[in-house]
Specification:
- The complex is a heterodimer of chains A (553) and B (120).
- With 553 residues, chain A is of the alpha+beta class.
- Chain A has twelve helices and 20 strands.
- The longest helix of chain A is centred in the first third of the chain and has 50 residues.
- In chain B, a hairpin with a 5-residue loop joins strand 1 and strand 2.
- The chains are: A alpha+beta (553), B alpha/beta (120).
- At the A-B interface, helix 4, helix 5 and strand 5 of A face helix 2 and helix 3 of B.
Amino acid sequence: MHGSSPLPSPPSPGSGASPSSAALSASSASAVNPDAAILAAHERLAELDPFSDRERLFDGVLAALLTAAHAERGVLVDPLRASSSDAGAAGDPPFAIPLTARDETLALLVLEKPPADPVGFASVTAHAARLLDSVRMADKVQKADFELKYRVWELQSLYDVGLSIAGTLDFESLAEDILYKSISLLNARTGTLIVCDRAADTPVTVRHLGEPLLDGESARLLPSTVLRCNTIQDRVGLLANAPAEKLLAVPILAEGRWLGVLVVADKENRDGSIDDFTEADERVASLFANQAAIALENARLHREAVEKEKMEREMELAASIQRTILPDTLPDVPGLVISGANRPAKQVGGDYFDVYPLADGRTAFCVADVSGKGVPAALLVSTVHACLHLLVPNNASDLPGLVARVNRHLVGFSSTRKFATLFIAVFDPAAGTLTYVNAGHNPGLWISPGGVNLLPSGGVPVGMMPGVVHKQASIRVAPGDTILLYSDGITEALNGSDEEFGMERLTALAIAGRVQAPAELSRRIFGAVNDFTTGVAQYDDQTVLIARVSAAS
Amino acid sequence: MSETLKVVVDRPDATVAVLRTDGYINNTGGEEIAKEAYALLGSGVNRLLLDLEKTKIVNSIGISILIEILEKLLDQGGKLAFCRLTPTIEKTFQIMGLAQYARIFPAPEPALAWLRGESE
């Protein structure tokens, strides 16, 4: 088999070039004439297959040597594995001849007496030595070939893991792949891979082959260094009870932070014993641990990208809902000039404003700000919008009752964290009054020749708790008076120094703009907020609704 | 998957045997396969199929034992086939030279046909 198919021979005890001792009796040797015996010995050696079974080969070599020596008995000893029983088998012979090649003794022939033809015999021992040398060299080549292939396998495994990392974001299957490849290449018997989240406090992936070497909780307490435990004394406390003889634990580090550990145990030897883990093993295990760290980081980045994309889609949907709900244009109503504007934030919040002309000539208008962001907030805005559109036409004369019904609806159909501040007012041009309920909203501003008055809150936001009662208030307004409603996105707009735009600036603008058209005042307010924030991203919607009592009333 | 290998031997007919492995082909796992393979060889069955469907991991010692089995089979004019290898194990066998002297098949049927000499 060896002669025709050079399979890579694995490095294993007993399969090396060094032969075991061979002892033979050559009863026919003494009858051969010296020259013929030397010739016959050479022929026997030439017929031997150097790749045949080692025992048979050595038996053949010894037989040839005994023929050449005209000896009946002898021992061919492997110098690396000599044993007294081999020598004893030949009757404690006194004459030893080393078989050497390349300055190395490949075997030792022990005879009872010197050969009859020393010169001829020397040619036979040289022939035998060359034969053993060729076997030894072939074996070395095969071992080197196996080693080389093993290195290729190692590199290929690392390359494959790298490719897998680039090609898949399923960290669970990658983790198993990394664990199995590490165990496989290190000839370990068992292994455990534990990976925690970025806060390093929760194991997110735990994989074992064989009995677990440690659990997730213990893993968190391991040091961020490589632990090579070839003796029980090497073990730190956490690994003391690991069900294995020898351990190698390498940390998985991301940007220097401990995120997990790869532990392999019990490096196998072909003879069944357990080898020590070496520095080279440490390097291989560390390479795989690095790959795990990269894979983990990739998976995290992917997860974040997916979440970001989802959030952006959500924001777009929320913005779309909000765009549909907010009025494009405001109706002309008796006795008021109204202007409203909304600037959605990057993370869509939930501002809402609207104007409702009533059948009896009065006008209702409102500003609301719902809790939360994104789609949930947009849906809540949608609910508030629907409630008000249904209730306002027939309930504007009883604002506390109207707000109570809105509150009841929101409490019944949304979670406790979903609520809305609401400022709703009804202007009666005939009576010259403005009646309002402020449910937890920022105080409205009433700008009149007498100055600026606040229209404060008369109760908690709607949707927060059942059964709350909101106070109604009423003011008498005159032509030229301005009612300015706004959301906290205006007064709490932040600049680069984390300062808020604030009520003072808004009030000053309102006073200065009391002779300006409401649309112009609205533009100035947004312009001032813009100038104040100087491009700093705002996280809350900004809404302004300005109602000016016109001279006609 | 356990690290302890189990081998189940199936004899579809008198000429071939299928050894189904489940577990890690390492030193002990390889010895387990070798024990079954040499018993079959001793009883005159020298065409073996190793079905590795339930084996996901193999190490170099396991491979060296598989090579030893292959050498003995070829010495006695036999044949060795593998089937249902994971991509990783198949690549490993290619790299380590096993695939040069044993055939690898995706499924048992074509492997058995090859072992019986019904296909090239």
